[in-house]
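Training component of the fellowship. As part of building independent skills, the fellow (R.M.) carried out the full modelling exercise for a liganded target. The chosen ligand was iron/sulfur cluster. The inputs are recorded below so that the supervisory panel can assess the work.
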Amino acid sequence: MTDVAIPKTTPKDWASDQEVRWCPGCGDYSILTAVRMLMPDLGVSPENTVFVSGIGCASRFPYYMNTYGVHSIHGRAPAVATGLAMARPDLDVWVITGDGDGLSIGGNHLIHALRRNVNVTILLFNNQIYGLTKGQYSPTSEVGKVTKSTPFGSVDYPFNPISLAIGAEATFVARTHDLDRQHMIETFRRAHDHKGAAFVEIYQNCNVFNDGAFDTITTKSNRGSMLIPLEHGQPVRFGEEGERGVVLGPDGRASIVDVADVGEDALVVHDETASDSTLAFALSRLAAGPTMPTPVGVFRAVERPDYGAEVTAQLETARQRAGNSGDLAALLRSGATWEVAGR
Amino acid sequence: MTDVAIPKTTPKDWASDQEVRWCPGCGDYSILTAVRMLMPDLGVSPENTVFVSGIGCASRFPYYMNTYGVHSIHGRAPAVATGLAMARPDLDVWVITGDGDGLSIGGNHLIHALRRNVNVTILLFNNQIYGLTKGQYSPTSEVGKVTKSTPFGSVDYPFNPISLAIGAEATFVARTHDLDRQHMIETFRRAHDHKGAAFVEIYQNCNVFNDGAFDTITTKSNRGSMLIPLEHGQPVRFGEEGERGVVLGPDGRASIVDVADVGEDALVVHDETASDSTLAFALSRLAAGPTMPTPVGVFRAVERPDYGAEVTAQLETARQRAGNSGDLAALLRSGATWEVAGR
Amino acid sequence: MTDTIAKRESDPVQSVPGVIVRFAGDSGDGMQLTGDRFTSSSALLGNDLSTLPDFPAEIRAPAGTVHGVSAFQVRIADHEISTPGDAADVLIAMNPAALKAESSKLPLGATIIVNTDTFDERNLKKAGYATDPLHDGSLSAYTVYEVPMSSITLEAVAGLGVKPRDADRSKNFFALGLVSWMYTRPVEPILEWITTRFGRTPLVAASNEAAFKAGHAFGETAELFASPVEIRPAALAPGLYTNITGNTALSWGLIAASRQSGLPIFLGSYPITPASDILHELSKHKEYGIRTFQAEDEIAGITSALGAAFGGHLGITTTSGPGVALKGEALGLAVSLELPLLVIDIQRGGPSTGLPTKTEAADLLQALYGRHGESPLPVLAAKSPSHCFDAAIEAVRLAVKYRTPVILLSDGYLANGAEPWLLPDVDSLPTIEPRFSTSPNDIDEEGQPVFHPYLRDPETLAREWAIPGTPGLMHRIGGIEKEDVTGNISYEPDNHERMVQLRAAKVAGIADDIPEVEVEGDLDADVLVLGWGSTWGAIGAAVDQVRATGGKVARAHLVHLNPLPRNLGEVLKGRRSVLIPEMNLGQLTKVIRAEFLVDAQCVSKVQGQPFTVGELVARIEHAIGGLG
Amino acid sequence: MTDTIAKRESDPVQSVPGVIVRFAGDSGDGMQLTGDRFTSSSALLGNDLSTLPDFPAEIRAPAGTVHGVSAFQVRIADHEISTPGDAADVLIAMNPAALKAESSKLPLGATIIVNTDTFDERNLKKAGYATDPLHDGSLSAYTVYEVPMSSITLEAVAGLGVKPRDADRSKNFFALGLVSWMYTRPVEPILEWITTRFGRTPLVAASNEAAFKAGHAFGETAELFASPVEIRPAALAPGLYTNITGNTALSWGLIAASRQSGLPIFLGSYPITPASDILHELSKHKEYGIRTFQAEDEIAGITSALGAAFGGHLGITTTSGPGVALKGEALGLAVSLELPLLVIDIQRGGPSTGLPTKTEAADLLQALYGRHGESPLPVLAAKSPSHCFDAAIEAVRLAVKYRTPVILLSDGYLANGAEPWLLPDVDSLPTIEPRFSTSPNDIDEEGQPVFHPYLRDPETLAREWAIPGTPGLMHRIGGIEKEDVTGNISYEPDNHERMVQLRAAKVAGIADDIPEVEVEGDLDADVLVLGWGSTWGAIGAAVDQVRATGGKVARAHLVHLNPLPRNLGEVLKGRRSVLIPEMNLGQLTKVIRAEFLVDAQCVSKVQGQPFTVGELVARIEHAIGGLG
Ligand SMILES: Cc1ncc(C[n+]2csc(CCOP(=O)(O)OP(=O)(O)O)c2C)c(N)n1
Ligand SMILES: Cc1ncc(C[n+]2csc(CCOP(=O)(O)OP(=O)(O)O)c2C)c(N)n1
Ligand code: SF4
Ligand code: SF4
Ligand SMILES: [Mg+2]
Ligand SMILES: [Mg+2]
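Fellow's submitted model of the complex:
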């Protein structure tokens, strides 16, 4: 980012001229809207913004943004983005991925981007299904799920993307969902502003192949009792009246209690900046799936040097040490040389 | 495994006729010895045992065992073993991998094998270096490490293999090291006996490219003060006299204290069977690298259905439901059919 | 369900030899399902048939757009046919976009049935029409029937309690009813199918049934249409038939090969269009002892299958081009391990993500050469939907007998296309012998019995295959070069060369174990058309057509692409012209030219669409005229 | 350090035209280092030279075993040479295993120097000797010098305070000292080098120095050897020289290409033998603005490089065959994105893990065809260690100018082999213009200026390249088929065919931008030897030798393998025999046969070892005699 004043934009300025091709009713639309609405607020310009995606319904996202964009191949977006972000620390790089793209075929690139803390903002559209290939189960689908490839129910125990990201040394981890635009916008803003790799899991409804997967917790009427908003520095509590809360047991386990039973002081106070990632991890274990009270918001946001910046700094140091910015002729002469005289 | 009595074997019966080709002094030798010594005790036979590996110094291991073995390709051993263990639940399948093989190129297969809980015993030889390719840093090398590929020091933040495995829903997670044969044997035994995926990180010295990486904690003289033995049901304490211990803070964080200061009752009691994986995770965060007091032993050992068994059970159910074990002629007629009469 | 077709009791109707119908509408309009039903009821009538589904990569592309049009073409005939036809006789266009996308492909004089309810300004504009084609005279060369399908459907389902938006979803059944009436298709099987398929949502079932009946009744009463016509059963070889797509036939072929070999199937696969349906089909049939594993990626798909093969299972992986590109390294390992393994590539448009739902046949060179080092393996290609069954069995036979990975090529056109299939007698299928090793096969230096995994059958050069669990035969294999016979690691120069040559000779030797290629048509013609894969139907029809009009032409079709049949050089020799139609830029052509130094020329089409017969006829006649 | 060679002041010694020395010992014996030093000091003397390191895949294979032997062959000459020589004149065998592994390759009459201290029963047995070859007469055809290297070394370092085990480690310096004396190599540069290299461990430095001096002194005093001989400087073209391996030259070529194009290097790479040294070399030179990224795997290596290329950097990935097999899918994406990208494949023995440390050239067909769909790209191959520099620049030039991924092939022999290199004038290197787009390049339907990323240069067919950060040129690209010009998603049949053909035409058109292939030797000879890659040196020497004895033969060598030089067909036409030596089973041969319908024959060697001149001479003479 530069110091030059960025011209003011509106959400429309961030929309490309391409027709959006998702199924009518798909949760992807509302995520797109949230991102387009957020962009003018970020103080960045379309030409310095790049969306990189893999393959899947979610991964069509870049086509719909009036920015630079790469719709790459299945699972590889974090790696493509890593190269771009390292080469061009001046850019804002976003990764758009799905639960199949990012956690199945692309799981390795994802966890490595997180541990390295590459300066990218990763939005994982988790619809717990393979949309684009017409409905197979994914690494986040629940055990027993009947899909085209599991007619007798899946026997695969799913990943918890938040736990996985924390286990992979992520510095920023958050969760939001497609039915709450404002929450999405705030979460994406935080993710964007984080230096280093920011990972956001978005519960997203695929109304064709996995309709209603998150209804138990995300619909307006259920949210109050089923979503646990994480707020830094605040005791973790939820419920229509804030009547429930989260405590940590002597073994570190987080569990849900009635505040009336334990008193507010017994509740765990959320600290997204804790240097130790155990608290974030404990909170990620509260819900095994989107049918139980589920934390949303920022689990973890800590500072660690950003990869691209570190790499670039090494270049600078080397330039200063060498006192030249690469004299080719000197390089060629850097080994032992000898002269053959003319005859 | 069958009920037929397994003939008694000795370690020698488990050694193949191939000459071991590691560098003199390599930590791999002692691991090999530990495994060979353990095998006769396990009540298994060589013909029902398979070692599967990827590529790297560590991955040469299968050649030295008088069992079935596959020395596959770089990073893919967990996937090869998954297929084998699913197809042949009667076999004992071991995976041998390195920190590069298992966590760099093979990271995705590893975490998926763990979440699925495939019945394999995974030994990850962590020497924090790429041995076979002559000394580049690995995903477990510490920040700042100078290697052939990082002449100015690595800027990659490393994985903590234990945290990663726990974040990936592993049911059995343990750590041991190459200087303590008995500890290795006991840890491997536990891992082997676990139904499902068992993950063991072994600190292993590469005396050619990363000599002494673990000396601070693993040598005989340092062990007492630097290794934190985890024992199920016991308060976590260590030190020559057991004078130090581990407590969990109100935010779940594990930290080291003088027992004299807090009293034994304040120490956290290790529970490897806790259904919630937070405790295991908290313990895994104690040491960021093998230069600080480091827990060894079994972090986590919980029961969850084993993947191959589940898959096989679905086959059985389907057979019973179908009332046949696959009548091909019936299958061909299962759609709409019509007869064309002879003319 | 087995039906013997009884002559229908109805008024004698006029009979036509065949018709090509194309249903087109939004991706959400259910055109694939409609076409499929029409196909099935025609199958039950004993027609020969061939289908061509054609849809976009989006699940439900935006309604009303040209790029979102989904089409299904089916040809039914009272005689043997081998293609879905070059162009439709009848187009059902559910909206302006469908008309726009499809009408230019129609021959003059074709019939068009449009759903007029969708021809409003918004839809016309979305489809890119400046004026309404129904009124601007631009369709004057066609017979156009304007039917308000949506509104009649709405009326028909009124009273069932269906919401209007849901009711509109039944309009494809209206269309199906109408076309069923036009071609006197039986009503009952479709009604039965509706009941079964939508059993869990009775309202939907009722609504679809009502719409279907309304469409049928509309045909009969509207007096808009000429009398219905009949297409008599085709004089196919006697026996029991089913209508089958390539992917189903392939899946069943694998199940048959498993039965014939006694090796349980292990399928390691990662979903990808257009191969996913094989994973779906096989995962349904667990009672056949089939393990299906949806792997985390294509590499885990193939390596898990290889692990299972080491364990004595029939290791299979299914994918499309991008997946094969990822499997290259593991394929090399399989070549080195010399284990049976089947890789199935359902080709689609490339390069890269390309055209995921469109057909192409441009993975041949990748199949032959897409690995590092010298890593030869057999490559086969299926030639028709039902032939996928036989091709699967043959591929497994070679893999098992020669201990080698085999690549079997199919494509999107075969995968989704359907045709009637005369069910084979399962008892006459070939037996496949795994011949596992059960005891030591050699003597070591000290005279002790030992097992050497790389000892070979002198005839086939296949190595020994001992599986875990076999006492005394423990051994280790890997991707590093192995010593001949023992399989131990060896970096010895001469041994490496020997092993490279042994692996090559083993695969080359398979030529002795496969049928010679047959020449059909005018055996000694100057012009020979050499084909492979799914071009089989179109080439056959084109050759027939050329010969019917007096042209002299021969044709031969390859199923085995590596090694090539022994007699192929002989077959090509002395032709003035060898034409190779390929849905690529000339991949087999390269192989043939290199192998036989014959000036073969590629007839190339790379449009994501199969060849039409007309295109091939033109090129063949050109060649006969000495011009190509 | 620049040294102008002054005539050494010493007794006049006998001069010989050249010698081939081979150092052989355990992998832990430091043979590579010893050979390297001998080479360097010969380079400083102005000799022409060529090296052949030859070592096992294990880091330190068990001492005393034949498979653990590590060898380094160097040929030094007072005239121009192009190969390390077919067989050694002098073998230094540090132990029985080394003698066992190497002696059979020696020509009769060769000199063998053995370290007798290692010839004990245990070592003899380990090496597989039943009797001691030094005493059983089996070496009677050679001149054998028995030198107790270990014990003299021990004595020499006694008093320095080195532990006996560590002292023994210096014995390779003893050998180096001895051989340096035999061939009158200068002493000082080696001593200086020891000081620098082992500066941090003074004891080791002192011990090595003592051993080296002891070896030198032993030669002078032992009266065992004939007088030392001299090899005069070669009459090379005048200028400044350095001794360079292929991998270093390649790395420097990339740095040069970065300078010439103004594009900073981004290297995304995963370590693999024998390519890792390029990663190592480039990561040392950050002052040139080079970013090196050790990726988690090969796929991340190439895709990160592609991401950097999208960002306007020079995206490069380096690997060997197994890595290329993994990069196929991403290469297809690069073909589709039409972005510059360089993939460097340092080939090694395959298939699969194969022979990681041995050379081979069997990845050509993979480079040409190892992707799904029609995905053409330029392929080049370097021909000598120093030529890797030029080849890298040329590969980058094509990649940038034509917006295309390029594969550059080298191999283990070139990678690790060294030769003197006349340093080029950096100011005369070609300029490479990235020509980024900076403003709209087209007009949309409404007459507004727009940027169309797939608008092409009519001459090169290269597309526009606008990089992020450029205002107003925002655009999206991906692997789905794109509409011509706009780059928007398109499934349209004709557009797909057009794009397939445009991509093919763009690559094919590069033929107009590369030099014609040169024919050397007897231009009109019946027999032509066509080469590619690292066979260049051996073919040249063989052709010279055949011609020197009166045989008529022509040769041509390809650097550009796709597209092929325009005149190649002409060059091949009318030859009675076209021979293509390849370290594979005939991969270029296939391409040439298919392209030109010429009956070219492969001279194949797949042993993990380069061709010897003798092998090629025999085959050429055979062909000249009308027999091949
Ligand atoms: C290499 C490769 N393998 C497989 C596919 C097929 N494929 C496309 S998208 C997809 C999964 C999509 O699931 P997800 O990432 O969850 O995205 P969604 O469609 O649900 O948004 C698969 C398997 C492919 N395009 N490329
Ligand atoms: C596909 C592929 N990429 C790279 C390599 C080269 N390679 C072999 S082993 C290895 C890493 C070894 O490190 P690790 O797994 O830690 O094993 P170690 O040698 O340290 O035991 C690499 C990069 C390879 N053989 N195959
Ligand atoms: S298939 Fe599902 S995820 Fe994909 S566009 Fe349709 S509704 Fe959205
Ligand atoms: S390089 Fe290191 S890990 Fe490999 S064998 Fe040698 S000491 Fe062991
Ligand atoms: Mg999804
Ligand atoms: Mg390692």
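The panel noted the following from the submitted structure. The pocket of iron/sulfur cluster (ligand 3) is lined by residues A 22-23, 26, 28, 57, 127, 131, 206-209; C 59-60 (CB under 6 Å). The two ends of chain D are 51 Å apart (CA to CA).
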